[in-house]
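Job type: complex structure
Entries:
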Amino acid sequence: GAVVSQHPSRVICKSGTSVKIECRSLDFQATTMFWYRQFPKQSLMLMATSNEGSKATYEQGVEKDKFLINHASLTLSTLTVTSAHPEDSSFYICSAHPGTGVYTQYFGPGTRLTVL
Amino acid sequence: DAKTTQPTSMDCAEGRAANLPCNHSTISGNEYVYWYRQIHSQGPQYIIHGLKNNETNEMASLIITEDRKSSTLILPHATLRDTAVYYCIVRVGGGAQKLVFGQGTRLTINP
């Protein structure tokens, strides 16, 4: 149990286009989801915390107008990278938390974004 | 959340126990020690967590010193598939709290 999927697993796009990444909790409802970004040979950096039905909370330095997060249901959160540029190329990972009483988050497999 | 310090890299022979240390000297009384690992190009995987008692599960054991200022993750019989970056994270309990990842320890299991 406790599976989180991401789609797509890999995407290549042209500079200036927008890319949407989906994060789904397959067998549980996630009250909270998190979005991370990881550059090569670096650690994961938290971008934002997403609660179902409310606005996401962004970490300092993360542009909320560039990285649009929508958590419209208890099983789906989306991250849209708007007007992507080569410096946005990265590994994007989501995690999901089922709710009270559960001590850990479950991570998705990640999405590799390459902006040409 | 308290800061953690881990060695940058470690090597271990296949079949031997891998002992990964973590220092968290500023840990406060309500903070837990969590361990995650990340195999190359995958999302992190939860391993184990503890507050002050030693913990064991099917993946690993967690030994926390009495003063809680350091801990050791033990993989009892390391396999090649255990090659990964291991992250020690200290934070208040509750899975909905955000995780702050440090640089972790890159563990290489050698045949």
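Summary: Chain B touches chain A through 22 residues (CB under 8 Å). The mean pLDDT of chain B is 93.
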